[in-house]
């Protein structure tokens, strides 16, 4: 209990590190050792009340929303610099608290953190927060106002990335934030908030209260919050949306996915499939945008499975602290149990395990699942319908006699629509297929959109609203129209 980064005793509320209202603590369990890795106090509804009260005062009495965009941008730029200084700490903590492989932790857990603060700092220096619209003798002033107090609820798989995606645009818009990290990964959030404090973010604008589902629901329903920004499961998102609906509260949701990679008949399978398999193992498959359905022409199906099986078997699995390891453990025992149940169910339904489908024999401790490739999967199977959040890819054959029509039909036959990919020897052909997919983002031949400059979010049950890009800022703004008398019309 000597590591100050891993054992915390306070919350951050109203610009100060304060004692919790309860003596309850939340123990963080290492997914690789199954032992306690750290500890934080567990927030109660009283702590949420204090945090929301501080944020509410920052809206109602503070000056942040009335500062110039340039002044807010300066603070965001300083925050980006402070976050860069702490990237190693954030990466190390996420390896301990949620099992992210050290080989990926720097890029995966901090790669889109500081740059997001930099992006919104630059955006608001030129963003048009006000404009005048004229129509004959009449004129109106259209203003963009902060939505108010934001409750930001983030998941455990990319805790600081997703905290940044909410906090940076909220602050840029002039909104204070109450941040509730997931119980599995609260420790890295402390380093995140310490960086914002060091950057000079004024008191009340960022508040940190780790807790469980009860306090999360209290934050959502609290009359002092004006908007909830949530990333997590679709089931939790439905609950949050329902609660926000009772109050007509603003809400943005980035939820689950069951994304598909389409391999067209002219794709170089020997090159493409190892890339697809490797991508599916990122964060041990615990990624909302993971391409867990791989659609392959029926005429090349067995060839594809053989390549995929070999690629999965070659992925290094083990202790996430080992720099040679790519696939670490799943975040919790319950998560491994769920993944194993879905795989067993798929095999019972007629799928075959081409690779994996079991626990790695050399890892008796830790919540590991071997990289798994499932063949003979049909799109109506449960394994092809539900988000799995594990290192498991389902290969689904499609009829390529009509070009890509059957592949597009299968890819779009999902309740989700978050991400996807298309691979072809002809990039223009791949782009044409990508345009037909009902999903929020598509990679063409492995080329992903340039985040954070473009929006990220989903169609259908993958969520509502967008993060990143100008759209991410606008989700924290309310539009207001003011009629201007003739004497105030510019140029009149």
Automatic annotation (TrEMBL):
GO molecular function term, any single one: oxidoreductase activity, acting on the aldehyde or oxo group of donors, NAD or NADP as acceptor
Record has DNA-binding as a keyword: no
Keywords noted in UniProt: Oxidoreductase
Domain of life, per lineage: Bacteria
Active site: 254
Protein name: Aldehyde dehydrogenase
A Pfam match: Aldedh
Every Aldehyde dehydrogenase domain range: 17-481
Sequence similarity: Belongs to the aldehyde dehydrogenase family.
InterPro entries for the chain: Ald_DH/histidinol_DH, Ald_DH_C, Ald_DH_CS_GLU, Ald_DH_N, Aldehyde_DH_dom
Keyword RNA-binding: no
Lineage: Bacteria, Bacillati, Actinomycetota, Actinomycetes, Frankiales
């Amino acid at each position: 209990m000597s590591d100050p980064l891993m054992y915390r005793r306070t919350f951050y509320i109203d610009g100060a590190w304060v004692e919790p209202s309860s003596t309850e603590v939340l123990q963080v369990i290492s997914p690789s050792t199954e032992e306690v890795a750290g500890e934080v106090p567990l927030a109660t509804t009283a702590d949420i009340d204090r945090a929301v009260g501080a944020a509410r005062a920052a809206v109602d009495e503070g000056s942040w929303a009335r500062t110039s965009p340039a002044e807010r941008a300066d603070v965001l730029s300083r925050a980006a610099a402070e976050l860069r200084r702490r990237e190693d700490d954030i990466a190390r903590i996420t390896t301990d608290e949620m099992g992210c492989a050290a080989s990926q932790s720097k890029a995966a857990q901090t790669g889109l953190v500081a740059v997001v603060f930099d992006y919104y700092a630059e955006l608001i220096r030129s963003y048009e927060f006000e404009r005048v619209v004229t129509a004959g003798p009449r004129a109106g002033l259209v203003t963009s106002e902060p939505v108010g107090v934001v409750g930001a609820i983030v998941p455990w798989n990319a805790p600081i990335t997703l905290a940044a995606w909410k906090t940076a645009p909220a602050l840029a818009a002039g909104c204070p934030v109450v941040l509730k990290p997931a119980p599995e990964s609260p420790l890295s959030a402390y380093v995140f908030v310490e960086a914002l404090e060091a950057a000079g973010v004024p008191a009340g604008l960022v508040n940190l209260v780790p807790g469980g589902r009860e306090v999360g629901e209290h934050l959502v329903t609290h009359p002092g919050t004006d908007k909830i920004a949530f990333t997590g499961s679709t089931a939790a998102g439905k609950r949050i949306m329902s609660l926000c609906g009772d109050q007509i509260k603003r809400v943005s949701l980035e939820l689950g996915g069951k994304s598909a990679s389409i391999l067209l008949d002219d794709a170089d399978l020997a090159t493409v499939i190892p890339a697809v398999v490797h991508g599916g193992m990122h964060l041990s498959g615990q990624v909302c945008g993971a391409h867990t359905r791989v659609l392959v022409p029926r005429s090349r199906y067995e060839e594809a499975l053989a390549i995929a099986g070999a690629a999965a078997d070659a992925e290094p699995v083990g202790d996430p602290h080992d720099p040679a390891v790519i696939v670490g453990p799943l975040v919790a025992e319950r998560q491994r149990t769920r993944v194993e149940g879905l795989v067993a169910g798929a095999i019972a339904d007629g799928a075959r395990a081409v690779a994996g489908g079991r626990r790695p024999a050399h890892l008796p401790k830790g919540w590991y699942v071997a990289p798994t490739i499932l063949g003979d999967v049909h799109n109506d199977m449960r394994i092809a319908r539900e988000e799995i959040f594990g290192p498991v890819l389902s290969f689904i054959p499609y009829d390529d006699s009509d070009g890509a029509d059957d592949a597009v039909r299968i890819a779009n036959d999902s309740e989700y629509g978050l991400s996807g990919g298309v691979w072809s020897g002809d990039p223009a052909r791949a782009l044409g297929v990508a345009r037909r997919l009902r999903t929020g983002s598509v990679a063409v031949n492995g080329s992903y959109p340039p985040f954070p400059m473009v929006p990220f979010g989903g169609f259908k049950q993958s969520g509502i609203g967008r993060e990143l890009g100008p759209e991410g800022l606008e989700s924290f703004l309310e539009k207001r129209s003011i009629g201007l008398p003739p004497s105030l019309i510019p140029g009149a």
